[in-house]
Amino acid sequence: MLLQGIEDLVQKQDLLIVKLLVTNSPVIELEFGSTLASKAIKELEVSFSNLNSIAFVGRVSKVLFEIRAKDASNQLGFIRQIRSIVNDVNSSKRYRFLLETSLGAVVTDHKANLSSKDWDARLNLALMKSTRTGRPEIADTKVATSEQVRHELSRLGPGSPPPEGMHWVFQPINYVATGEVFGYEALCRWDSPTLGSISPEMFIQIAEDLNLVQIIDFWTLKSVEASYPELLLLGGQAISINISAQTLGNDHEFFSAVDQLLPKIKEAHFSLIFELTETSVIENQIDLSLGLIGLRKRGAKIAIDDFGTGKTSLSIISSLPTDFVKLDGSLLEVERPDLSVGLLELGMKFAELVGAEVIVEKVETHEDLELARKVGAKYAQGWLFGQPVDLSLPTPTQL
């Protein structure tokens, strides 16, 4: 690895280093021959060498370049220059194929007391992630953590217990008019003993990428089954669970677990609500609709979460069985109050047309609550009414 040959330099100054991999080289060699593939990749190397902003370019292998910038301060500009060279070769029409590449970058910190081997490991993680995402990736703590999370989740399978530190909390949903509790939303949290607190946005997205999110959905359902008797004592009449479209499409074990839980929930005079994010609506609308209809026939209710943030067609959303529309909290953060009211009213009108009730999310101030009240929303959810209840900790009445 070329990076390990600059140990002294890494300790003295910050460096911007890029690794670029020609990912489709085997396909090019198979279809057009190794000579032509090597010629195109060699052209890349020559073009890199002629770029004034490059301090060093070398080959780690015949298809993997390591490139070091003269200036570490302009990461995005340097990456654009590297990609521009690849685009120039592809647009030159000298070859009957296109070079497909992955690009990972890292900016070393000479004060961090890390070796060149450590920086190389981070750079390789960024390159691996770029290969999956199809876009350039700059190594940082988040990239390193996401790769470790991916490794941890990839070891899971049906029947696996939740990773250490993963648990569920319950965010109250309240009546706008009185502030009384209507129900609770089950939220998955992961405080890993080795990785620290991992954001749900990160581990849920990775679980979806690995086609493993249905396992987390199943764990959530089992957590609700274990927790609803205590929630019943705290008041309320509903429990809400986030569910992935992947789970709705193909997880029979999940539906079997729903069949076991629903009679218990109903007997306790609770409603079970399944939340589907607007942005998670999958391409296979038939499977999605059938899954939601199946949940409704079992006696569950359906909510569209984060409404107002996705790019999904309103006609698609309106075709889904819907009991609740959760208006995203970003609608409360618009600078002009009149515009915020207008957007909330649009959401209210949509909910009226599909026969659904409205829950306004991220209500954190009395001003937010007043906006929800002004547009006629029945329910609100947010920290104004309290932080999520962690049943693994003593409740305020137990202290």
Helix and strand arrangement:
Blueprint: H1 7-12, E1 16-22, H2 25-32, H3 34-49, E2 54-61, E3 64-69, H4 75-91, E4 101-107, H5 116-133, E5 137-138, H6 141-154, E6 166-175, E7 181-192, E8 196-198, H7 200-209, H8 213-234, E9 238-242, H9 245-250, H10 252-267, E10 271-277, H11 285-297, E11 301-307, H12 314-318, E12 324-327, H13 337-354, E13 357-360, H14 366-374, E14 379-381
Parallel strand pairs: 4-5, 7-9, 9-10, 10-11, 11-12, 12-13, 13-14
Antiparallel strand pairs: 1-3, 1-4, 2-3, 6-7, 6-14, 7-8
Helix pairs in contact: 2-3, 3-4, 6-7, 8-10
Primary descriptors:
14 strands, about 400 residues, TIM Barrel, Alpha-Beta Plaits, single chain, alpha/beta, elongated
Largest beta sheet, briefly? 8 strands, mixed, barrel
Q: Which percent band covers the strand fraction?
A: 15-25%
CATH architecture of the largest domain: Alpha-Beta Barrel
CATH superfamily of the largest domain: EAL domain
- Contiguous low-pLDDT stretches (5 residues minimum) are 394-399
Q: What is the count of β-strands? A: 14
- Helical proportion, percent range: 40-55%
Give the radius of gyration. 26 Å
Q: Please state the overall shape, judged from the principal axes of the Cα atoms.
A: elongated
Number of domains: 2
How many helices does DSSP assign? 14
| Average pLDDT over all residues | 88
Strand order of the largest sheet: 6-7-9-10-11-12-13-14
